[in-house]
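Reviewer comment 2.1 asked that we show a complete input and output for one of the modelled complexes. We chose the adenosine-5'-triphosphate case, as it is the one discussed in the main text.
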Amino acid sequence: MIDFKNVSKTYPNGTHALYNVSLSIDKGEFVFIVGASGAGKSTFLKLIMHEESPTSGEIVINGTETTRLRRSKVPYLRRHMGIVFQDFRLIEKMNVFDNVAFAMRAVGKPYSVIKSRVPYVLELVGLKDKMKNKPSELSGGEQQRVSLARALVNNPEIIIADEPTGNVDPEMSHEIIELLTEINAKGTTIIVVTHEHELVREFGKRVVVIDHGRVKSDASKAVDDYLGEADYADIPDYPDNVEVIPD
Ligand SMILES: Nc1ncnc2c1ncn2[C@@H]1O[C@H](COP(=O)(O)OP(=O)(O)OP(=O)(O)O)[C@@H](O)[C@H]1O
Ligand SMILES: [Mg+2]
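Response of the prediction step:
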């Protein structure tokens, strides 16, 4: 379903975000993507959804070579995808209902379907009572769940979620992954970026570890090795000229 062959991405400012990534994700899989901040996780997702195009290599989505896909064709590719962006991307002028309904209108669903489907999906993410609120009236975690509802609402073939649990409490995180697991059981392919190692351990799915733009491991058993060292990996060394204040 998703096939990366020797994909590299260098941003226009010269930052190398991904090197030579080769990876296949089959229909119906559930994959966690983990790795330190700046490792290239969001870049990987942006290449799948064709928000960015690769500098070299080949990306095939559902049998279509998307590397040189024309801009005008991108909406057709995205029709099969539900995307939870790391920065939510809600429309500020619209209330919660309309933010989710918008995704259904975009694919031509009639209002008769929208008016029952949107509340149903908002209930799944625990936000039915916030339907009339604007995004600015919601907490970060609530906005994140609106973004999740919008990704689910059209029953996409693939759900791509960039840290869908980044702003919610541990219990809600668990519920969100549980919900994605249920959706996955019905055949939807799910790709989730997360920093929450506990969740990754608990759910025992395929785990792709990205490290400095490369796939460091791709398995379910290797995750413990990685998680052991990753706890320390993000802590920077003190620069020499900073005085450390004693306790
Ligand atoms: N639009 C851009 N232009 C230039 N460099 C970018 C751009 N987007 C990301 N980068 C750089 O590419 C690298 C990978 O970024 P990416 O956003 O994929 O990381 P990430 O793994 O998602 O990190 P995080 O966990 O912090 O979200 C980083 O060095 C980042 O600074
Ligand atoms: Mg990111």
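Helices lie at 41-48, 74-78, 96-106, 111-124, 140-152, 170-185, 197-203, 223-233. We note this here for comparison with the apo prediction described in Section 3.2.
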